[in-house]
Design a protein that fits this description.
There is one protein chain. With about 150 residues, the protein is mainly alpha-helical. The protein is about 65% helix and about 10% strand. It is built from 7 helices and 3 strands. Strands 1-3-2 form a 3-stranded antiparallel sheet. A hairpin with a 2-residue loop joins strand 2 and strand 3. The chain is elongated and about 60 Å long.
């Protein structure tokens, strides 16, 4: 059995930035394992989810909204397209860009992935009460809407 942590709880209390980075890394790892078990990467799941919510949009808009590097977005869309989950067509409003559209197979794949999400979230955030999870979500939303100062 590993020794009980003694320093990190103190550090986390003094440095919320460090605590958030470490928590983010742990949750990101868990999310990737979960998404892989569902047959999708986290980025792929997010793209399908956004397309289902907002409809067809450009890869650039997906990258900006989901905060995924544009070069990574190309690979995500390539993989989704080769799986038949999205279709890319020239954007009629801007021939230099592609409109990414969710296919019926993508809608089905998303439905399956979304069905498994609540259990994953319950497991990942089991240390928090429902109220604490709501509070965490609210606080993270505030942080993400504020541009950090250099």
């Amino acid at each position: 059995m590993p020794p009980k942590p003694t320093y990190f709880p103190q550090l986390a209390a003094e440095r919320p930035d460090i605590a958030l980075c470490r928590a983010s890394t742990a949750v990101a790892r868990a999310a990737e394992v979960h998404a892989s078990a569902q047959g999708l990467g986290v980025g792929q799941h997010l793209v399908l989810k956004m397309l289902a919510e907002v409809g067809a949009c450009s890869q650039q808009a997906l990258a900006e909204e989901l905060r995924i590097d544009r070069s990574v977005m190309v690979t995500v869309c390539d993989d989704l397209e080769s799986s038949g989950y999205v279709r890319r067509e020239r954007n009629p409003l801007d021939r230099r860009s592609y409109a990414v559209t969710l296919t019926p197979a993508g809608t089905d794949r998303l439905r399956g992935a979304e069905a498994a999400t609540p259990a994953f979230l319950d497991d990942t955030f089991a240390a928090l009460t429902a109220g604490e999870r709501t509070q965490l979500t609210t606080l993270l939303g505030k942080l993400l809407l504020t541009e950090p100062r250099p």
